[in-house]
Amino acid sequence: MAGSSKASGHFFCPDDFYTTMRYAVPVIALLRSIATYAAVSLYVLVIGSPFVIIAILIRKPLLLYKVGLVGVRLGQHLSGIRVRVQGGERIQRNRAAVYAVNHTSNVEPPILYSVLSELFPRLRIVYKAELRKLPVLTQAFDLAGFVPLQRGNPEQSLPAVEKAGEALRDGNSFLIFPEGTRSRTGALLPFKKGGFIMAIKGQAPVVPVAIKGARDAMHKGSLVINPVVIDVIFGEPVETVGLTLADRDNLIAEVRRRVQTLLGVPA
Predict the structure, then answer these.
(1) pLDDT tens, 115-161?
(2) Of 69, 134, 208, 220, which has the fewest CB atoms closer than 10 Å, so is most exposed?
(3) Residue 122 resides in a domain
(4) How crowded is the C-beta side of 102, counted as CA atoms within 13 Å?
């Protein structure tokens, strides 16, 4: 009976099933990625852009934040990314802070934007100055209070750092990725100084944040978004009250050490 079952093609082979799934999973991720890009692009074109223009005209930054948040969560849902937050009680809801996050993937900024949405409209982002070549985007960023930094040119970035310090003193928080670029290997890169200088100037705490699993969702050089679970872990804030610019290297070292610990990497 067993022999006739094999001959008729009805014999179940687990290896065949796993082989089929190994090829099917990337195809499904690719199809979901295409659907995500298409849906988010349509949302930006049909809904996002008009509301951004309206927000600019009526000077309502909160509208900008909400329009962006809907787009982020639409993309997250369609791509199958799920987010787990640990240490959410360490989000500084009643005072300004700088949130310093490791960076391995393009999915990290929108995920942190969503996780920190309760801080809207007092959440600021430091972005690459090259993006100011897009006029409408520039006006939207200016309305939201986002700060452009000139990578590789510290002197040109000084006014932006001063502006960010002033915004912190006014009660606005900042999201920064202090490595300055995505890590190809997932290993934590050296931290740049700009975000820590503005934290000291604003006398605002720096909250170390580790994001784990984002590289599995979308690694550097890839456009495919894989449906994975991503963990966002908030650490205890590092206070800067009383610190001066002479303390910046020690501050950087301490925050980096804490991010490494949150990632589970020996310091």
Answers:
(1) 999 999 999 998 888 888 878 888 999 999 998 887 766 666 788 88
(2) 134
(3) yes
(4) 32
Q: Round the CA-based radius of gyration of the chain to a whole number and report it.
A: 22
Q: How many domains does the chain have?
A: 1
For residues 77 and 69, is the Cβ–Cβ distance under 8 A?
no
- The percentage of the chain sitting over the pLDDT mark of 90, rounded to a whole number, equals 74
Residue the block writes with tokens 């349509």: 42
Residue bearing tokens 């985007």: 137
Tell me whether residue 22 is in a domain.
no
Instruction: Tell whether pTM > 0.70.
Output: yes
Range of the domain at 254: 82-263
Instruction: Give 86 or 25, the one with higher predicted confidence.
Output: 86
pLDDT digits 0-9 by tens, 57-75: 999 999 999 999 999 999 9
Transcribe 184-249 into DSSP letters: SSSPPPPPPSHHHHHHHHHT--EEEEEEESHHHHS-TT-------EEEEEE-PPBP-TT--GGGHH
| Amino acid sitting at position 55 | A
CATH number of the domain within which 162 lies: 3.40.1130.10
